[in-house]
Amino acid sequence: MLCKRSLLFSAFVFIFLAIFQPFGLNLIPEHLYVMIAGYALICFLLMLVLNLVIPALFPVYFAEQKWNCGKELLWTFVNILLIGLANALYSDYLGLFSFNLHRILLFELYTLVVGMIPVSINVLTKMHKLELKYKSQSETINSELVHNQSKIPHTKKEEIDIQSE
Known about the structure:
This protein is mostly helical. The chain has helices spanning about 1-20, 30-55, 70-95, 100-150.
């Protein structure tokens, strides 16, 4: 599942950058698709490493039972920040830009803009899956409670009158 999600994100990055060629990519005449594949590969590898290694190192923090929207947003933001930083380093390696604070911030913005669509789809999909899972578990527990309650012998209830003066 994780590999599939990383692959889908990176495929989206490749297709988006190849079709729209934003952020000055349209000015690069040679080896454009190879460069774009590099950005997609960065996205794939970082997502895979971040979402396999870090949760394994901190299982309590990433426990599904304690996961919430705030943690999801924070973790998504960390992913985007690190992918943006790696994209800036990759662009510097390619000689497209010099590596400085302005370029880093610019690449963070680029990564955020490109990542908004797949991140939104991912959060909604994850929320829907978890909702279905926990709804199913809740229904199972409720039906077991009703079934077990029928096994409890019912006793006649007695009324007690308390007189007051």
